[in-house]
Every structure is written in structure tokens, then in C-alpha cells.
């Protein structure tokens, strides 16, 4: 196990993370401090149990789904860079980013990437569509036992019926985008303290 001092961020790492995520130098150093405080094993990575100690995630009904988003498939640890890439989805979009170079790749916090992140929270089996069963599972996570299974089924059926354009009884990412085109994703999927 290395000491915290040996795992401090180098200036070139900060610059690379700034480019990749859009976070400022001070935001990166502040989030690095938070990352290292969560890293109880002091090994430069976080596991699921480290995230489960975050009170806001522990009480969030989608906490486990959000935690899973930090881990690439098959991985059980995330390093600081991966941590920052996931957090970047929640970074507010700055006015100067809205008119960016059209040839550059989409920033992680773009509307389309925020929507993809949200879509993946619902797509439990990662087959690029949201089935009725997946929608029901997520709804159950969000409302617990406050609504009957019959009511949840009705909500899921109505949601699929409204969103499904190709008649496959599921919601594709394009259908998901269409349903949410009038929703202020920027406001709903941004964490203001990251501003």
C-alpha cells in the first residue's frame, strides 16, 4: 500500500483530466481530495463499498445503479481518472461549451451523453433497450412499496406505449431521446456544487 503522498496527482495528469472532463484545476484537486478520503485501502482505487459509504448514495433509491455506472463491465475497482469521467456527466454545461467546435468529440457532460448515462441506468441488462421488466425494476427501486405492483405495471405499460415508436415493446436510446426532447436534462442532471 502506497502512502497518499506518493499517489498525489501530477500536473500533467491534472491537465489531461481537465481536457477530458472539462473540470477546472481547483475542482479536480477538490475531487481528488474527496476521492482519497473515500479510498480507505489507500491503493488509489475505489470499490463499490467505498461508494456505499457516501450518505447521499446510500439513501438514493438508484444508488446501486449510480455506483455501478462508475465501474466498467467486469471491473470492481475504479481509479481517479475513471471516477472523474463518470462525474463529468453531472457537470453543468457552460455557455461557452454550447457553441463549441462541431468537429470536436462530444463532451462527457453534453446533453446526449447525459441522456445516454440516464438511459444506461434503466438498461439493466445492457442490451441497448429498456424492456417493461427493466422499467418495472427501476420504478420499484424508486418508489419501494408505496405503489402497488398493478399501479407500477400500468405506469410501465403507459410509458412504453408512449415511447415505443417501432412496436417492439421496449424503449431504444433514440426513442428515449425523443421522449425527453422537451425535458431540461441540463437542470435535472447537473450537480451545482461542481459548477
TrEMBL record:
Q: Which CDD domains match?
A: EFh
Q: Does the keyword Protein transport apply?
A: yes
Might you name a Gene Ontology BP term for this protein? protein transport
Q: Where in the cell is it found?
A: Cell membrane; Cytoplasm; Nucleus
Task: List the Gene Ontology MF annotations in alphabetical order.
Answer: calcium ion binding
User: Which GO cellular component terms, listed alphabetically, does the Swiss-Prot or TrEMBL entry include?
Assistant: cytoplasm; nucleus; plasma membrane
Q: Which Pfam families match?
A: EF-hand_7
Keyword set for this entry? Answer: Calcium, Cell membrane, Cytoplasm, Lipoprotein, Membrane, Metal-binding, Myristate, Nucleus, Phosphoprotein, Protein transport, Repeat, Transport
Broad class of where this protein is predominantly found: membrane
Task: Output the superkingdom of the source species.
Answer: Eukaryota
Specify the EF-hand domain's residue ranges: 110-145, 151-186
User: What family, per the record?
Assistant: Belongs to the calcineurin regulatory subunit family. CHP subfamily.
What is the name listed in the Swiss-Prot or TrEMBL entry for this protein? Calcineurin B homologous protein 1-like isoform X2
- Species this chain originates from: Salvelinus namaycush
